[in-house]
Amino acid sequence: MTLRSRNDEGSTKMQYFIYILECADESFYIGCTNDLSKRIKQHNESKCGAHYTKIRRPVKLKYSEIFDNLKDTRMREAEIKGWRREKKIELINKKVGDNK
Question: Buried b / exposed e across 31-56, counting CB within 10 Å, b at 16+?
């Protein structure tokens, strides 16, 4: 489902997501999309798409963030990709703790 938000003027705006997937081998995959549920389904079922996840199925969504523009989304994706595994786990655990 592609999400769109309304701004104060009432027009719709595309939303983008960065996400962290945990693969069957317990490795992480970080990506971005404008349709999170469709993209996760592609990672788990599609013959095309990310080779990394295709050979490490099934994948589970562990974390996501929403952005209003692609530039900020890509910058955040690159930032998280540069992190060590421990820092990614801290981010995931922090988000889980916020939902309690």
Answer: bbbbbbeebbebbeeeeeebeebbeb
Q: Does domain 4-98 fall into CATH 3.40.50.300?
A: no
Q: Which of 44, 17, 42, 41 is nearest to 31 (CA)?
A: 17
Q: What does the DSSP 8-state code read for residue 61?
A: E
Q: Where are the domains of the chain?
A: 4-98
Residue 50 pLDDT: 87
What is the percent of the chain with per-residue pLDDT over 70, rounded to a whole number? 84
What pTM did the predictor assign?
A: 0.84
Query: CA Rg, the chain, in Å?
Result: 14
At residue 59, what is the residue type?
V
Torsion of CA 40, 38, 19, 21, to 10 degrees: 0
- Res 22 pLDDT > 60: yes
